[in-house]
Design a protein that fits this description.
Helix content: over 70%
Strand content: under 5%
Number of strands: 0
């Protein structure tokens, strides 16, 4: 109950602050321009994170530089590459985001602390410590989730990408031209990485170095296996089309096996849900009907027709 009251108080403070900010923003000039010209000037759509958090991230990181060892900037830099550089952040900006969330958690902890003192609730001191700590490490969980989702999307896109490459190369296109053509027709994280490789090749970067950098920026085992096979075929003179076809078939088989593994792992989870949620709820329903029958009629009534 006390935790619920504290959360409600924190939400009320945040809503009040956002309302005051919106009231303080001058909108009359924009509305007048819309009435005069009939439409508003085009604006870039940005999220709250881009508009409010990122601009203050680097100054916060510089002020709280002593927290850098807790952020592990080297690991963060690698994970940002694995996640595709979300919002073009570097390790220093990410530290600033962590500090920002730590301050938000501190405000929430202070609100609950004073509410707990006023109402005589317990857990105020714990919230005062847990709020900043959770706020500081919450961006790391978000980044890990971004990395996982991006690499999974790359794994799912690999077989279709290789099928299109096989068709293009067999049609007589060179590997580089086929790569450019495929990147036009598919979208996703894999396309973003391949376009970066194309830009490196256009400026004269050797193909093996560009592909090695691609592997270094990602943790996908499927992508790593494809690049290794491609470079090996290039060194040995093996036909590229045959290599692509073999890789596509292998990756499709791997994707089917992964789907089967996930289905096998889902069965115990369904059993747990049935045992701990469905069965107790049904028993409680029948028990409540029996109790209501005893209270109303003094005897049990038969359930059903």
């Amino acid at each position: 109950m006390g935790l619920l009251i504290g959360l409600m108080a924190m939400v009320a403070v945040l809503i009040l602050a956002e309302g005051m900010r919106r009231l303080s923003v001058p909108r009359s000039g924009k509305l007048l321009a819309e009435l005069v010209y009939g439409e508003s000037a085009p604006e870039a759509k940005q999220t709250y994170f881009q508009r409010r958090v990122l601009p203050v991230a680097r100054p916060l990181a510089e002020r709280f530089e002593f927290l850098e060892p807790f952020s592990e900037p080297e690991k963060v830099a690698f994970k940002l590459d694995y996640a595709g550089r979300p919002y073009d952040m570097d390790a220093q900006q990410f530290l600033g985001v962590q500090v920002y969330m730590m301050l938000v958690g501190l405000v929430g902890g202070l609100v609950y602390f004073f509410v707990a003192i006023t109402l005589g609730l317990c857990g105020g001191a714990i919230a005062l410590l847990a709020g900043p700590t959770a706020g500081f490490f919450l961006p790391r969980l978000w980044l890990d989730n971004k990395v996982k989702k991006r690499q999974e999307q790359i794994n799912l896109s690999m077989p279709d990408f290789l099928d299109m490459m096989v068709v293009s190369v067999r049609a007589g296109m060179s590997f580089d031209n086929a790569l450019r053509l495929v990147c036009v027709h598919i979208t996703g994280p894999l396309t973003e990485e391949l376009r970066r490789v194309i830009r490196e090749l256009e400026v004269g970067e050797p193909r093996n170095i560009a592909f090695r950098r691609l592997v270094k920026r990602n943790t996908s085992e499927d992508l790593r296996a494809f690049i290794d096979a491609l470079l090996q075929a290039d060194e040995l003179g093996t036909p590229i089309a045959k290599t692509l076809e073999v890789q596509a078939e292998e990756l499709r088989t791997i994707r089917i096996n992964r789907a089967r593994e996930r289905a096998a792992k889902a069965s115990p989870n369904i059993s747990l849900v049935t045992v701990f949620l469905v069965v107790p709820s049904v028993l409680c329903l029948f028990l409540s009907m029996m109790v209501m029958s005893i209270i109303s009629g003094g005897q049990l009534t038969t359930i059903g027709p």
